[in-house]
Amino acid sequence: MNEFIQTLSLGGTGPSIAIKDTIDIAGYATTAASRALADTAPAAEHAEVVARLLAAGWRVVGKANMHELAFGMTGINDYTGTPQNPQDATRIPGGSSSGSAAAVGLKLADAALGTDTGGSIRGPAACCGVAGLKPTFGRVSRRGVAPRESSLDCVGPFAREMSTLVAVMQAITADFDMHAARAWQGGCKVGIVQADAMPEIGAAVARAADVAGCTAHALRLDGLSAAFDAGLAVINVETSRALGHLLETGKLGADLDARLRAAANTTAAQLDAAQHVRRQFTAAVDHALDNVDVLILPTLPALPITLDEARGGASVIAMSKLIRPFNLSGHPALSLPLPLAGSPLKAGLQIVGRKGQDEQVCAIAARFEAALAA
């Protein structure tokens, strides 16, 4: 069972939850699923989100597996094993929170926590057919979460249904309004972001707005492509700064070694340009949300590739082209399972809201969930 690095039983008799191995659990090492961190000392205290879950009666059932060092999109890990994609065992589970998404999809846990720096909750959620939320940047505590410093990374939940996801958010967020997150009052105005994706996925996004009874109009979100590139530059600089020293150990997987060495080549000029794009794109998203409740678009532009294709060297970086931009801007973004006509596999519907309005994103997602299940 590669979904867990370690199984546990901590806490109350409430719902079960898995915790990604970048999040501290007192008494257990936080290894980020890497041989280079295998000898790390056990955490002295729980991450704040874990302490909150335990205080709320949740039961922690394991440290979830992940893409090594949370720096990859496939979820393949030759050291700790690769979690199974619940929708199709021949396909990648997505990264980096692969074990969290897979554990929920396989019903090994009621919910899971992951982290999302460049799409690492929403991507695996879409691959594995579950719901996953990247909260507004800064809304959920990152105390006790690796890397210690990040301008992109967010802790967030996975669940099979929105009601459970909302319950996790209430537990881990000090000021989360559960009532607002469960009931969307009135109409629903959505902007459908023009996105380069498989025609079947684009059609499913438009259909979802229709069946949910939303007033929808297509819009162009300026700077989406530039924000993707800028997000890569920022994550490269910040990951290199936090983890570059591990290159000296000689214990990293080949893909991580190559990515970290490449990341170290990001220049100060590239980072400055990325921060300029960050300001522009954030303003563009804010402006797009002026006249609609949420933006919707595909989570991933295509269905996940197969494990064989990934191991054969197929590039996966474009998987994150529609999700990474919202790490740069900091807006809350949720991936909801999206049925595809004529396919047993579900894609992902991405729902993006105003900063701080995570409850509204959840409430509208619940509306889509109910409509798509009808």
TrEMBL record:
EC numbers: 6.3.5.7
GO molecular function: glutaminyl-tRNA synthase (glutamine-hydrolyzing) activity; transferase activity
Keywords from the UniProt entry: Ligase, Transferase
Record domain Amidase: where: 17-362
Source organism, top-level taxon: Bacteria
InterPro entries found in the cross-reference section: Amidase (IPR000120), Amidase_CS (IPR020556), Amidase_dom (IPR023631), AS_sf (IPR036928)
Family: Belongs to the amidase family.
Record protein name field: Glutamyl-tRNA(Gln) amidotransferase subunit A
Organism of origin: Paraburkholderia fynbosensis
